[in-house]
Amino acid sequence: MGCDGAGWVGKGLARKEDNRLLRGRGKFIDDIRLHDMLYLKFVRSPYAHAKVTSLDTAVAEALPGVICTLTGAEIANQTNPFIEIGPDPFARIKDYPLAVSKVRYQGEPVAAVIATSPQIADDAAELVQVDYESLEVVVDGEEALKDSVLLHEEAGTNRVWQGIFEYGDIEKAFREAAHVVRIDKMHFHRFSSTPLENNAVIGQWDPKDEHIYYWCNNSFPSFAMQFIAAHLGIPIDRIRVQTFDIGGSFGIKITSYPQMSVCALASKKAGGRPVKWIETRSEHNVSSAHGNERTFRDTRVALDKNAVIMAIDSRHIDDCGAYPRYEPLGCVIWAQVFPGVYRFRNARIDFSQAVTNKCPVGPNRGYSRMQHLWFLERVVDICAHQLGIPPDEMRLRNYIRPEEFPYTTPNGCVYDSGNYPKMLQVAKERIGWEDWQKKQAMARAEGRWLGIGIGTTLDSGTNNFGQSQIVNPNAPFSGNSQGANCKLDIYGEVVVAVGSCPQGQGHETTAAQVVADVLNIHPDMVTVRTGFDTERNVHTGASGTYASQFAVSGLSAVHGAARKLKSEMERLAAFLLKTGEENLEFGMGQQGPQIRAKDTGSSVNYWQLANVVNVNSAVLPAELYELTLNCRYVWRAPFKVPDKEKKYGSLTLTYASQLHIAVVEIDRDTFIPHILEYVAVDDCGKVINPPIVEGQVYGATAHGIGAALMERCLYDAVGNMLTATFSDYTPITAVNIPNVRYAHIETPSPHSYNGAKGMGEGGAAPIHTISAALQDALFSSGIVVSDSFNNADTLYRAMVARDIYQAGDLVKLEKRA
Amino acid sequence: MPEAAPGVSIQVCVNGKLHPREVEPRKLLVEFIREDLELTGTHIGCDTTYCGACTVLMNGAAVKSCTVFAVQADGAEITTVEGLEKNGDLHPIQKAFGDCYGLQCGYCTPGLMISALQLLKDNPTPNQEQIRKAIAGNTCRCTGYQNIFKAIENAAAKLRSPSHAD
Ligand code: FES
Ligand code: FES
C-alpha cells in the first residue's frame, strides 16, 4: 500500500486559498469583465399574485445604450418549461425563468433589459411599462392546501406532493402507552442563509460554435446544467460552466438556473455578446431562494411509564413558495433523519407540500432535515416538561445508544456511528451544568427568567439521490458520485481537479492534504484547481457542493485519483530504475519530489516521469503506452435504490452529530432574550483539518443563532416581503453573536476511507437549543415554545398578551398509568 | 427620460497612487474603485449600508464606499485591501486573519481587515467588546465571527511586538 500517511491529513494546515483572498485577489464573478460585455437588469413584479395584462418595452428600448429586452412571452416561445422533479399533477405546471402571463410572488421577474452599462440597464428597467390585475393571495401553507386560491391552474391544486411515512405498529404503541402527549400546532419559520455575495452570472451564447459559456457562482452546476439543457433544447456538452471564488452559498445558490437561462437567451438575442447579471441584495432577499417553512399539526406522542417515546404520529405541511424548482425533494430528504437521535420505532408522518405566493425555496443549509429535527427536539422537550423530567435525563432515556451503531432506523437508514450520551456529558462539563443549575435556581428565586436548553441534532451527509424516487417513482436519479483528476503535468507538477464547487470550505487545502499523504510530499507541492469547470472533464451528474459531503465524496474521489496516479508512477519508475515496484519509495529528494529505489538509492524525479510519458515517449516500451499520468477517478457511494412503496432504504451515507447547550435569560423589562453561555460539541468522525472543521461549526452555529433570534423572511397577508433588505432582515453581526465554546468528540465513520463524515450544515442545532432554553425559562409560567423564531415580540405575546405559546391551549397530556 | 449627466473631474489618491478621472456624479465610490480603477478586492454585499463588504479607509477613517459618491472622494486619500501588503509581504492584520482561520469564502475579509486597521490604529490594545463594536458594521456570513475576534486580537499583538516596525 506504500506510504499513505505522511500525516498531513488530520493537521491544521494553513489554507491554500488565503493567499489570494487576503490580498484582495480573489476572483468573484463581478470581478470579471469580458470584451463587449453587456449588463442585464430584471423588471420585477411588485405584486405577489397578479395577471400581467400588458407589458410594453418600447420606451426602454429607445433609451440610448439599451441593446434589447426580453419578455416571458418571448422566452416561452423558444424554450421548454423547466423540468419538474415531482410527479403529476404538479409536473404539468409551466415554470419559465420570466413570468409569462401571471406572477406568483413578489419580485418574480417579468422582463429583462440588456444594456451597455449597469446604470443604463437600471434606468431602462424603470421604463418598462407593466400593467397588472391583482389576484387573491395565499401566503400560508395550510391555507394553500384548501385550494381556494390556485397558483398554477395547470395543476388544479396547490398540493405539490403528499405521502405517508409509516413504520412499526402505531396503534399498538398508543394502546399500550402510559402517557400520551398531544401538541396541536408547531411552526418552523422561513429564513435564508443569505450568502454575502449575491447571485452572479455572466452568460454567453456564442453563435460561432453554438456553445453557451457560463461564468457564475452556482453551487451545484451539474444539476443546473441538466435543467438548462432540457429547457433550452441544447446538448449538455455545449454548455460550459465555470465557477471561481464564491462568496458563500449555503445551498441558496443551487437554484440560480432560471437567471442563468435568461443570461444565455439575452446573449443570443444580443448577437452573442456576453451578458452579466449581478443580483442586488434586495433582489436576493425577495427573489433568489429562501429556506423551507414547515407546520406540524396534530402531533400525538406515546410514551411508556419511564417517559421513553414509543410512537409519534403527526401531520407536516411544508411551504415551498411559488415554484417547486428543487422541490419536492424536501418532502423526502427530512426522512434521512426520520427518528433524529432517538430510539422510537413506531411512527407515522403524513407529509404534504404546498405552493404559496412567496419566493421559491432552495436547499438552505440544514435543508429539510433541520425542520424535522427541530420538531423532534420540541417533542422531546415538551414531553419532558409535561412529565416533569429534566431535559438531559429525558434525552438519555431516549437516545440511540453508543453500542447500537451502526443503527438501522425504522425507515432503513443506517446511522454509521455516534455517541450522543458522551456528547451530552462533554457539553455539560464544558458549560458547567451543575453550576448553572444552581444559578438558575437562584435566578428563579429572584423572579428572573433564565433557561437552559439542550439541542441534539444530525448533519446527514452524502445523500442517495434514489430518494427522489420516493417522491416520483419515475425520477431517473439514484446513488451519489464525485469525480476528481490527479495528474503530473508535462513538467511534473502535481495538479488536482475536483468536481466540487467550494464557497469557503477550504477544498483546495484539504484535497492537497490528501494527495500529499498519498505521494508522501508537502501539500505546497500540490496545485488544486480553483472552482468548478465542466471542461476539466472530472465532474459527474452529481458534482457540486451541497449535502455535507466533501470530506466523504470529494476527498474519496481525490484519494482514488491520487492512488491511481501513484500506481502509474510506480510502474513507470520501476521501468526507469530497472527494479521492482516493491523496491520503490515515494518521498522528497534533493530536487523535489521523487521515487527512489530502496536498495541502490538511485531515483527519478517527477519531471523525468512526466517527460517520458508526455514528450519523450520513444524511450517507452509498448506495454507502458497506456500510462497517461492523468488519472480520473469517480467515487460512487454504495447505495441501492430505496423501496419506493415502503419508503424504506439507506438515504444518506454519514451522520455527523452536534450537541449544543445554551443558557438564555429573557430580560423581564424588555423581553429581549440574551445568551449568557453557549457550548457546541461536534462529532464528524475523523477530522481532516481541525481548524477548518471548527470554523464550519462556528459558521453553522451563527446561522442557527441568527435564525432563532433575528433572521426571518417575513411576509404580510398580501405577500409583501417585509425583510427585503439586510437592514430589515438583520443578519447576525459581531455584537449579537455570543462567545461559542467548541469541543469535539470523534466516532470514526466506517463508511469513508479515512473515517471522516461530511459536515458543515450543522443540523441547525442552535434553533433547537434556543427554543429549548426559552421554554425552560418560561415553562413554569405555562409556556411552551411552538415556533422556531423568537424575539422580544414573541416573548411579550407569550407572557403578557398571552395569545401564543400557551401550554394549556397547545398541549394535552393524557396520563394513563 | 434620464439623461447622461456630464462627467465631473476628480483626483483620488488610492493606495499611494494618484488617479485623475472623469466620473458620472451618481457613481458610487465603490463602483469607482472596482470599475474605473479595477481594484476588485473591495466588494459589494448589500444596498442599505449594512454589510461593510465595501469598507475602505478614506482620509484615515473606515467608510462604507457604497455610501459615498465618487465625487465626494475628490482629493481624498484612500486605502483599499490591495494597499495593505508591502512589497509582497502581508500586513500583520492579513497574516493574523490567515493564522487564525478568520476567513472562509473571503468575500467579507477585505472590508473587515480595513475596519480592523482603523480600530488598531486608534486603539492598539482593544478588548473584545471594543473589537465587536469596531466590526459591528461588517457582516460575515461564513465564520460566525469567533475566529475574526481571535484574528484581530492576534493582529493587535503582532502590531505591538517590537519586531513589527511600521
Ligand atoms: S455594500 Fe456597502 S455596506 Fe454593504
Ligand atoms: S468569510 Fe464569507 S462572508 Fe466572511
What features would you describe in this structure?
The complex is a heterodimer of chains A (817) and B (166). Chain A is an alpha+beta fold. Helix content of chain A is 28%, strand content 24%. Chain A has 3 domains: 18-25 and 481-636, Aldehyde oxidase/xanthine dehydrogenase, molybdopterin binding domain (Aldehyde Oxidoreductase, domain 4, 2-Layer Sandwich), CATH 3.30.365.10; 32-135 and 199-278, Alpha-Beta Complex (Aldehyde Oxidoreductase, domain 3); 160-192 and 289-466 and 642-811, Aldehyde Oxidoreductase, domain 4, CATH 3.30.365. In chain A, strands 3-5-1-12-9-10-11 form a 7-stranded mixed beta sheet, sandwiched between helices. With 166 residues, chain B is an alpha+beta fold. Chain B folds into 2 domains: 8-83, Ubiquitin-like (UB roll) (Roll), CATH 3.10.20.30; 92-160, [2Fe-2S]-binding domain (DNA polymerase, domain 1). Helices cover 31% and strands 15% of the residues of chain B. Chain B is built from 5 helices and 5 strands, in the order E-E-H-E-E-E-H-H-H-H. Chain B has helices at residues 29-36, 92-99, 109-122, 128-134, 146-160; strands at 8-14, 17-23, 55-58, 61-64, 77-79. In chain B, helix 2 (92-99) packs across helix 5 (146-160). The longest helix of chain B is centred in the last third of the chain and has 15 residues, at 146-160. The relative contact order of chain B is 0.15. Classes of the chains: A alpha+beta (817), B alpha+beta (166). At the A-B interface, helix 1 and helix 19 of A face helix 2, helix 3, helix 4 and helix 5 of B. The structure holds FE2/S2 (inorganic) cluster (2 copies). One FE2/S2 (inorganic) cluster sits between chains B (103-109, 140-143) and A (196, 247-248, 504).
Under CATH, the topology of the largest domain in chain B can be stated as: Ubiquitin-like (UB roll)
The named CATH superfamily of the largest domain in chain A = Aldehyde oxidase/xanthine dehydrogenase, molybdopterin binding domain
Termini separation of chain A (Å)?
61 Å
The CA-CA distance between the termini of chain B, in Å, is 53 Å
CATH topology of the largest domain in chain A: Aldehyde Oxidoreductase, domain 4
Q: Please give the number of β-strands of chain A.
A: 29
Number of beta-strand segments of chain B: 5
Shape of chain A: globular
Which class of the largest domain in chain B in CATH terms? Alpha Beta
Radius of gyration of chain A: 28 Å
At the fourth level of CATH, the homologous superfamily of the largest domain in chain B is: Beta-grasp domain
